[in-house]
Design goal:
The chain has one domain. The strands form three sheets. It has a three-stranded mixed sheet with strand order 1-4-5, with no helix packed on it. A two-stranded antiparallel ribbon has the order 2-3. The chain contains ten helices and seven strands. The chain is mainly α and 276 residues long. It starts with a strand and ends in an 8-residue tail after the last helix.
Length: 276
């Protein structure tokens, strides 16, 4: 059994002698620390991969900066739209309270690809090559970011008595499970799955299929979607559209797109056969 130590990484009070801010109490949350760390590590990996492929790291980093902004906006907008009834009953500022959690990866992917893609298109840069370059950083960032759910006591599954059960305080339990104490740590399941996807992409597929632009991204899309479909079925806080879990619907679409698109892309760019 394990449990969250709380969402606050550390807090401090601004010295009184500092103008305007003196005496202000500030708290740094684990969610923000982890998201920022994931972004920094992802940018470093992408720049390294761009240099290896002969692309300009500075152009890639600029495109990635735009993509990260689009990803944050898209992830929050996606989450709020599918929780609109809740946010209508809350103070307006809560819509922007990302430090409390509530970033949907599918919205982040859409927003990041759209905004980053517009920058790449405006600069006449190779969109699919850039997307493949940043792809391994996506599951690695997700593996790190999922631990923010642990500290916030969110994104957990149904009750369980398994040895790795997660204790959830009563304040964060769903009403139907208010008397239960231990739940599936679905954030951990997805984090481990994402880490496995990263290792497979980085060490197994990255060089083998780089000849085919978009192939690495399609491989990520299919692999991630398989794990997300399974994990989503265990969660108690899924975003819903009627009786359907949105993440599972999108995951099915992701698997289908990868299953159809990946063979086509690889067939269009066959591996070179060296002469004897």
């Amino acid at each position: 059994m394990f449990h969250s130590p709380g969402p606050i990484a550390f807090s401090f009070t601004v010295p009184a002698e500092i103008p305007f801010l003196g005496g202000l109490h500030l708290a740094i949350r684990w969610y923000g620390v982890l998201i920022a760390s994931a972004m920094a590590l992802g940018l470093w990996l992408a720049a390294r991969e761009a240099a290896r492929r002969g692309e300009r790291p500075d152009e890639l980093l600029k495109a990635s900066e735009f993509a990260l902004v689009g990803a944050l906006v898209g992830a929050r907008l996606y989450y709020v739209v599918f929780n609109l009834d809740y946010y209508r009953s809350q103070p307006w500022w809560r819509t922007f309270a990302v430090w409390e959690g509530g970033l949907a990866i599918h919205g982040g992917l859409l927003g990041g690809i759209l905004v980053g893609g517009l920058y790449v298109w405006s600069r006449a840069l190779p969109f699919w090559t850039y997307l493949d370059i940043v792809t391994p950083a996506l599951p690695l960032g997700q593996a790190i970011g999922r631990w923010g759910n642990f500290f916030n006591e969110e994104a957990f599954g149904g009750p369980t008595d398994l040895p790795w059960k997660l204790f959830i305080s009563q304040l964060h339990r769903p009403p139907e499970y208010v008397d239960a104490q231990f739940f599936h740590p679905t954030f951990l399941y997805e984090s481990l799955w994402d880490l496995g996807v990263f290792l497979l992409l980085w060490f197994g597929l990255r060089r083998r299929i780089e000849r085919a632009p978009s192939a690495l991204f399609l491989a990520y899309l299919g692999l991630y979607s398989i794990g997300r479909f399974w994990v989503e079925g265990l969660r108690t806080d899924s975003l819903m559209l009627g009786p359907l879990r949105i993440a599972q619907v999108v995951s099915v679409l992701g698997v289908v797109l990868a299953a159809v698109g990946l063979p086509l892309v690889l067939r269009r760019h066959p591996a070179r056969v060296e002469a004897p």
